[in-house]
Write a structure and sequence with these properties.
With about 950 residues, the chain is an all-alpha fold. The chain contains 40 helices and four strands.
């Protein structure tokens, strides 16, 4: 099972090169995984039909009982045959539908096959969390498929609407899954169905949340607006996602959980009422539309309501009818969508008002449509008739609520007959006053997929009894009545057949009076769900703009004051209500008087920030508070933290200085006396509240501190540095996540500087034809010796000559040259000594970044380019790659980030050992170095280049000018 799922995603990843090499014929190759899944499912038919199941599982999160579990039983067998079988035929259909020159065909092909793989895994999933993961994967891939024509606004809007609706439902469903999993003590679906949790308020809420996800996925009212708009997708997508796969996921989930939760009081009212309403509303709306795909789309909405009603009724006969109806719906709705694509392809339009005489021009296409449409209208001897008869019988002998639902289903069936006739008449009939539509010839390969599905619908009508064992194996999991129903094409004359005849007759009347029905429908039409959705989004956007305009006033001080006041109010309310300081140990002012002195100086520097008006002074004072904090770490005996704090503060101050070059010298905001008098107490109160909160939190400890256990764990591995070991081993997940966040933040910040492209411009010295940015503001002195008047000058830096002589500091250049390599060596030492001494990849990366910053400050952007000729993104990406690779390497022992250590002996160096945690730390080192380099290039070198361009000292094309640069 898992091999088939993986094969879908693996071949989907190769879809681009395949399409590039084979063109549209690549779809034939891409159809192999779903075809293989279909064949495999057929070989397991007897096992599933006998009530057995094939299972596979892998412990994913053992501590929480979450496993990647797959299970093929009777219901899963049915869904696999539909998802894989129809998927293979749709992929073959694509080979004729598209041309070799279709834009972005490789991406479309990969997304379609990946969706098929996600759908296959979804219906096989036997774990709630696994099901949710693949559920959301189908949402993502459907978003990409619906929005394939992204150059059209309607496609983008439809894709976004489908994503929003189904994702919100999916999130609600996830919460429900978590509640059910906790209540049942397991997330294994088969175990929950076999032994459902006791019905409590929490379980009832969870059932409603799960139904929200299922109903939104299957476009049940009030979530039905997204499916008709999704017709903006190419026709193969509509035939697969919206007839046989994605929209069936919600119905499948209802059917899967019905044996466990159909008796929960909230289940049946939601399923029966919303399912019946959807059947009526969708069918009624289909009667007044003119686009063939929209007629089928609203018909699909109607049929999904019918399927949901049957699947959620909660008895054996209704479940049996739901299972055969799921099969029948796929076998008639998918070919109708495919036929619509053929008509659109051959005639160039889907508007039934413009189509005329197409049936005579394309008789074989019309024949396929007749078979599929007759099955949709439930005419004998097709499968749709057998399924509808089973549904009528199940509801007829059910409870009072089910008999009311039967009336709704009969009315909905009449609407189904009416819009089926409207579809066939609109697509193929010759219309009075409309000239015959010219069409081109349709090849057999184009028609074969829908023809095969339609013929299956015809064959399985008389042969529906062949499927009775399989469908019955699922239906038997629900309570059975005194007279279990068995599938057959003919059960004799009875009330069910009379109701079918009534539905056919009413449908014919509605079709014949289509003009009056259309006028009436438009006259009493309510606002569409789509328009309501659009108005809700517009209102939300306007509200967001008003709130943003009210709150976001462009003042950082206002933002900070708001944040502090909210925090202050919340914390004070909690402290006053709970009084958590009762019984708390009295805090000590300090452990060492030196701590008090450092803290006083740090506070003094922070308070002085309130009195300065020059930005540079404020940066220096803020930096002093950071250095003061680092000194507190030193006094407290935390050298790792102190070293990291010193490095971070140094890099931060340099970044601030680089930014201040493009900002006014003084603060522009004028602060009145009363505002200053207000801000100081707010800041002091917030600081005091945070301090009290920290004291209360520390004093509330009841468990033993984890420090002793961690020290012992580190010592058992022959290590000494507890902090570094925690970061790269014991809590490596946190470090990995923080590294990814750091990389994303750096990319976001620097992208604000690189508005167009990140590698804009050359870093070669030949592009400069004047002074660098660091020399433009300096007064050029003619008193300096020129040419042969001076003694021979030694170049200490590679790009030092790009600076004007009066702007150079020979002392700084010499110092930078002398300390650059030792700082790099120090960074490597800090990286590799972290097991026993203070250090680590993070602080080592910062130290290496400081070395590069030193070269930049001494020689400018060209010096930085000489010192680090590689792109920062290479270091950042390589660091993430190394860290992630080490994490995945641990899967060899069954756990992500499992640490390995190799011990060996070298002739000269003696004993040595290499640990994967050091390699992981090396990835962190590269990432931090890349982030620092990226920021320096963006806020330093990039800003320098902007200044030079504004001053006109760059060559027009970024290349050398005659005469060369001014040295």
């Amino acid at each position: 099972m898992i091999a088939l799922v993986v094969a879908h995603f693996a071949l989907a990843a190769c879809a681009g090169p395949l399409v590039h090499r084979l063109g549209r014929r690549a779809f034939v190759v891409l159809a192999l995984p779903p075809a293989a899944a279909t064949v495999w499912a057929l070989t397991r038919w007897n096992t599933a039909a006998s009530g057995g199941a094939d299972t596979w599982s892998w412990q994913w999160i053992p501590d929480y009982g979450v496993a990647l579990a797959l299970r093929l039983d009777a219901l899963a067998e049915l869904m696999v045959l539909l998802a894989a079988g129809v998927g293979a035929l749709v992929l073959l259909y694509c080979a004729s539908y598209f041309t070799d020159g279709t834009p972005q065909l490789g991406r479309f092909a990969g997304n379609l096959l990946a969706f098929a793989g996600a759908m296959l895994a979804l219906v096989l999933a036997d774990d709630l969390i696994t099901l949710y993961v693949f559920w959301e994967l189908t949402t993502v891939f459907s978003y990409l498929l619906i929005g394939h024509g992204s150059e059209h606004r309607h496609s983008r809007r439809s894709a976004l609407q489908a994503l929003v609706v189904t994702t919100l439902g999916g999130l609600a469903m996830l919460v429900g899954f978590l509640i059910i999993g906790q209540a049942a003590g397991t997330y294994r679906i088969s175990a929950i169905v076999a032994d459902p949790p006791e019905t409590t308020l929490a379980v009832s809420v969870a059932v409603v949340l799960v139904l929200c996800g299922a109903l939104s996925k299957s476009a049940i009212w009030p979530f039905s607006m997204w499916l008709p708009n999704a017709m903006a997708a190419p026709t193969p997508v509509s035939a697969y996602l919206h007839a046989a796969a994605m929209v069936k996921a919600g119905v499948y989930l209802v059917a899967r959980l019905a044996p466990a939760f159909a008796d929960v009081p909230v289940w049946k009212p939601v399923v029966l009422v919303l399912g019946g309403a959807t059947m009526l509303l969708g069918g009624w709306r289909a009667l007044r539309l003119n686009d063939l795909k929209l007629v089928l789309a609203y018909g699909t909405v109607s049929q999904l309501g019918f399927l949901t009603l049957l699947a959620g009724t909660g008895n054996r006969n209704a479940a049996l009818a739901a299972a055969v109806m799921i099969l029948g719906h796929a076998l008639f709705k998918a070919p109708l969508f495919l036929v619509t694509g053929i008509v659109d392809h051959a005639a160039g339009t889907r508007d039934l008002r413009e189509l005329s005489g197409v049936g005579r021009s394309l008789p074989y296409v019309a024949g396929v449509a007749v078979l599929a449409a007759a099955s949709m209208a439930a005419l004998p001897p097709l499968l749709g008739f057998a399924a509808k008869e089973a549904a009528f019988e199940a509801l007829l002998h059910g409870s009072a609520a089910e008999r009311w639902a039967l009336g709704v289903v009969v009315a909905g069936s009449a609407l189904t007959t009416a819009y089926t006739l409207r579809f066939f008449w609109g697509a193929f009939a010759r219309k009075r006053g409309v000239p015959d539509t010219p069409v081109h010839r349709v090849g057999w390969a184009f028609l074969a997929p829908p023809a095969l599905l339609a013929v299956l619908g015809l064959a399985l009508g008389p042969g529906v009894g062949w499927t009775d064992r399989l469908q019955g194996a699922y239906a038997d999991t629900l309570p059975a009545g005194p007279d279990p129903y068995h599938l057959s094409l003919w059960h004799g004359f009875g009330l069910a057949l009379l109701l079918s005849a009534l539905a056919w007759g009413a449908g014919v009347v509605l079709f014949l009076g289509r003009a009056h029905v259309t006028r009436l429908s438009r006259r009493i039409a309510w606002p569409t769900a789509d328009s309501v959705f659009g108005h809700l989004l517009l209102g939300q956007e306007r509200l967001a703009l008003q709130v943003t305009g009210f709150i976001q006033r462009g003042s950082l001080s206002v933002y900070l004051a708001t944040t502090l006041l909210v925090m202050l109010g919340g914390q004070l309310a909690v402290l006053m209500v709970d009084t958590p300081w009762d019984g708390a140990v009295r805090p000590r002012l300090w452990d060492n008087p030196l701590q008090g002195a450092v803290a006083a100086l740090t506070c003094a520097a922070a308070l002085l920030c309130l009195t300065v008006r020059r930005r540079m002074k404020a940066v220096v004072l803020a930096g002093l508070t950071g250095y003061g904090t680092a000194l507190l770490f030193v006094v407290q005996g935390a050298p790792d933290l102190a070293l990291t704090q010193f490095c971070v503060e140094t890099v931060a101050m340099i970044v601030f200085v680089l930014v201040l070059r493009r900002m006014p010298v003084h603060f522009q905001e004028t602060v009145s006396t009363w505002r200053r008098a207000t801000r100081v107490p707010v800041a002091l109160a917030a600081a005091a509240t945070v301090g009290v909160g920290m004291w209360v939190a520390a004093a509330a400890r009841t468990a033993e501190p984890a420090g002793t256990a961690m020290v012992q764990e580190v010592a058992d591995h022959g290590l000494k540095d507890v902090v570094a070991t925690i970061l790269v081993d014991l809590r490596a997940w946190d470090t990995m996540g923080e590294s990814a966040v750091l990389a994303a933040a750096a990319v976001g910040v620097t992208s604000l500087i690189y508005l167009h492209r990140r590698s804009e411009g050359s870093m070669a010295q030949d592009e400069l034809r004047g002074r660098t940015a660091w020399s433009l503001s300096a007064h050029h002195s003619s008193r300096l010796p020129q040419g042969d008047e001076a003694a021979p000058e030694r170049s200490w830096l590679a790009a030092g000559a790009t600076l004007a002589p009066e702007h150079r500091s020979i002392v700084f250049e010499v110092v930078a040259r002398l300390v650059f390599h030792p700082i790099l060596v120090l960074s490597v030492y800090l990286l590799f000594c972290a097991e026993s001494l203070p250090g680590g990849g993070f602080v080592a990366g910062l130290v290496a970044g400081v070395a590069l910053i030193t070269r930049y400050l001494a020689g400018g952007r060209f010096e930085l380019a000489e010192a680090a000729p590689l792109q920062p993104g290479l270091f950042t990406g390589l660091g993430l790659f190394v860290s992630t690779g080490v994490a995945l390497l641990g899967l060899a022992e069954g756990t992500v980030l499992h640490a390995f250590t190799h011990y060996g002996h070298l002739p000269v160096f003696g004993e040595y050992h290499v640990s994967t945690s050091v390699i992981f730390d090396f990835g962190v080192y590269l990432l931090v170095l890349g982030v620092v380099l990226d920021i320096v290039r963006a806020l330093g070198a990039k800003v320098d280049r902007q200044i030079e361009r504004a001053a006109g000292v760059l060559t027009p094309e970024g290349g050398p000018e005659v005469g060369g640069p001014l040295r």
